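Final report, closing paragraph on structural work. Over the funding period we assembled a curated collection of sequence-structure pairs, and we close with a single example.
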Amino acid sequence: MLSRGALLLAAFAIGLCAHAGDSTAHRPYTLYYIVCSGGAADGETPFWMASHTHGRMPADISSVGGYMQAGVQHAGALSGHWRWGAGLSLVAAAPRIRRNVFVQEAYAELVYRDRIALCMGSREGSCDEALGYPAGPDPTLSSGDLLLSTNARPIPEINIYTPRFMAVPLTGGWLQAGGYFAVGRSFDTEYLRAAIAADRHYVQDVLWHRKALYLQVKDPRPQSLPLSFTLGIRHVAQWGGTSTLPKMGRQPQSLKDFARIVLGQAGGSDATVSDQINVLGNHYGTYDFRLDYVGAHFAVGAYYQHFWEDRSGIEWYNGVDGLAGLRIDLHTFPYVNRLVVEHLSTMNQSGPFHFIQYDHRKYPGYGGGADNYYNNEEYTTGASYFGRAIGSPLLISPTYNADGAPGFRHNRIRAWHFGAEGGIAGPWTWRTRLSTIRSFGTPYAPTLKPLNNTSVRIDVCYALPDRHASRPSGWEFTATLATDRGDLLGNHNGFGLTISRSGILK
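Its predicted structure, as stored:
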């Protein structure tokens, strides 16, 4: 995992697009960082040592393993109100399936007046982060955003988004809006060939589409009210690609098919029977709600992400399935700066049964159910990339399937999560995550009995001060202890050490 200082500097570079002022306030700079993270474990890597590392830390170090990442990011100004940015990072990791050295980030972006931005390539961090996770969980301490967390490697994409919230006309600045529209493509074919069992099928070269719209009610005045409310709706879809199952083969991927994906329409005559009856591709998303209070001494944010997999979830037939959380920032308390408490439930899933062709005259009721979150019959790898869940890692990723199965086997869960961080003394800081998971399997493959897991991670970080200036030197050292307990993931212990160096070249 990137150390705190590297994360802050990287977030500054990524957050280039989040600045709300005029573009003349930006100054060109070049950021570099090098991170070396290694560890040892008795068996698989403890859950919270491998999760939320953007797919860098191997999930099965068994004895000794880790990664090294080196990257550079540049922000520059163009004439007028235009500015640009670019970044590149490489990762070397071991042990690893297939390639030990790979490109983690490679992107370029163009921004106009902090109102509209175009980004192309793969980048750790998303436009959700550029907008400050306006309706979602804390990206550092949370168990993870249900749609796009920091758990998996970034998917290369073309993304058009608003770098900040913009006032809606005729509202006096009280109503603000933001959002994004992106298309991407998976490049994990080599990994899938090596990781998935020969008797299982999957889709190669999957295409992705995601979009979001956020509305925020906030006082625009300098002496503003301390309350704000954010509402969002997000949509993710998998489509296209070529299935290894001969009878499926190449999936529809024309411009007309893309329009069907964007609008959530049924597939044409060249689509599978299921996609002709329902909608083309695999779709899921969230309704996001957040209420924030910002005071002089503390800030509180309460949020809820309602997950949906199909129409039944969109129409809220799946109960309260989703992530509810509370974040507390303590501005003046020296030893605890931030607290996060979350509860995740995916138990309802619109009921126990699903009927593709439902006879409403014979069977009164809605007819949806067994939503099977993160899974899909055609796109069997589901909401994953290089074996890691793109959303919440608490719905255990396919990389943990010992038999090489491609999907999620634990998507009916109840989970509690706790995260906290603070200072110790001077340059010493601490951070912890604790999660408890109770899994009931999936709607189609329930477990014989509930499986439980408790995972804990504790980090202690030291930021080396600069001898000649009252600021960090760019060197950071993080010691990590982690453990898993339970019959879901097994009992594992591990420890790690992360050394990072970051700074501004100019």
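The longest strand covers residues 446-465. Confidence is low (pLDDT under 50) at residues 1-24. We thank the funder for supporting this effort.
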